[in-house]
Amino acid sequence: MTETNIEGPLYAPRKKIYPQAVHGRFRRIKWTLLAITLSIYYFTPFLRWDRGPGLPDQAVLIDIPARRFYFFFIELWPQEVYYFTGLLIMAALALFLMNALAGRLWCGYLCPQTVWTDLFYAVERFIEGDRRHRILKDQHGFTARRAGELAAKHFIWLMIAWWTGGAWVLYFADAPTLVKELVTFQAPMVAYVWIGILTFTTYTLAGFMREQVCIYMCPWPRIQAALTDEWALNVTYRVDRGEPRMSVKKAELARQHGESAGDCVDCHQCVNVCPTGVDIREGLQLGCVQCGLCIDACTHVMQQVGRPTGLIAYDTDINGQRRLEGKPPVYRPIRARTIMYSAMIVLTGAVMVYALATRGSLDVNVLHERNPLFVALSDGGVRNDYTVRLLNKRPTARAVTISVLGVPGATMQTPGVGHGAGEQIGVEIGQDQSRELRISVQVPADLVPAKSVRITFEVKDPATGETAAATDHFVPPTN
Ligand code: SF4
Ligand code: SF4
């Protein structure tokens, strides 16, 4: 039996990271995406969409009391929640596709944790200065000026976090109305509670936990590490070009003497700008969110020392190997897995679009009464009871007829509802509403089926000819 010696602590305490400001192509892409994604999140609730009288005019609205989800011209009912399943499948496939093309594109540019942390870092840098100033300020203890800076930073962070929580609740009610209610303290308590929860989570995750969320909490880095392949582009330090590292002067001398000298001048700029504190020169790591900022930093350094840019760049594992073997790089963005993911996204999207385009505005659900399953009448006839829900998805009220098919001699009764009784009954349904009916179906003694048979409830709008149907069973007494 072998003895295991554990040396040192099991958990390494966090080393505070002071990312340095950087300029360049990837930083510009990140600022642009930050502005777009945050604008979408904060301002979407204020977009209006005219759906006609009596219906909400908010373009994107999750109306929990009315049990509706509105997204511009699309209105989803609770029965259509499967569309969200389709959306989730497409989102997962899009993540897989991004991963197959260029690694953690989502993590580096679009993930909310990345976007808000980036915003919080920008505030920190604006108030406390760049990396060097922040390190010195942390080392030089507490002064009145430092206290003022910290107070200002945390105040702005809290305002951003509060606005984030506030924007979230606006998706669940008419935004302009809710804003007025919030500022006059007349909004429902649940709105204040959710704003409080999201203010706290945003402030904590983006202000304090930062890269620890990506490294320790999020499952996606582990999943994507298992999904990726050697053809995916990743932020890569080109070892063949960079090593051996040395200063500019030493490298020039070495080259003059015909000795090998790498382009890396060991300036640590790529590490200093990294928001997760990774040294990309040590290879691909779990902590690297692939934000590309080290590319910008190194590009700047290479331009300053007069060496070709691209020492750190998006590249593939295959090319890393090929360069070491002196072979030219090859890129294959179009390969089996990217074709398969794209095809599955297109297919899922097409099925959803078709289902949306062809769905009717009239629907019916039926549920058989289970206790009792049937009622034997004194004249030998049999009665079954059903709960029938009619759905009118049109913005106008409509009158429909209900018929039962499949059980000869069946007649219906709807206690206290509808017009008439018999083989067909008429019912009115309000605009964009559902209506629940209890319908008793009765079969005379001489036509009672010998065994359980399928029964169909057919709903028809005589004005438009649109029909909808739902089936269940008519159950006779058992011997
Ligand atoms: S920024 Fe470039 S040159 Fe500087 S340490 Fe990083 S890889 Fe080397
Ligand atoms: S190593 Fe480079 S790409 Fe990776 S997180 Fe750090 S700065 Fe971004």
Automatic annotation (TrEMBL):
GO terms for molecular function: 4 iron, 4 sulfur cluster binding; metal ion binding. The keyword Cytoplasm does not apply. The keyword Ion transport does not apply. GO terms for cellular component: plasma membrane. Keywords: 4Fe-4S, Electron transport, Iron, Iron-sulfur, Membrane, Metal-binding, Transmembrane, Transmembrane helix, Transport. This is 4Fe-4S ferredoxin, iron-sulfur binding. The chain crosses the membrane at residues 31-49, 81-102, 155-173, 185-206, 339-357. Pfam families: Fer4_18, Fer4_5, FixG_C. SUPFAM superfamilies: 4Fe-4S ferredoxins. Signal peptide: none annotated. NCBIfam families: ccoG_rdxA_fixG (TIGR02745). Gene3D superfamilies: Immunoglobulins. Residues 255-283 form the 4Fe-4S ferredoxin-type domain. It comes from Rhodopseudomonas palustris (strain HaA2).
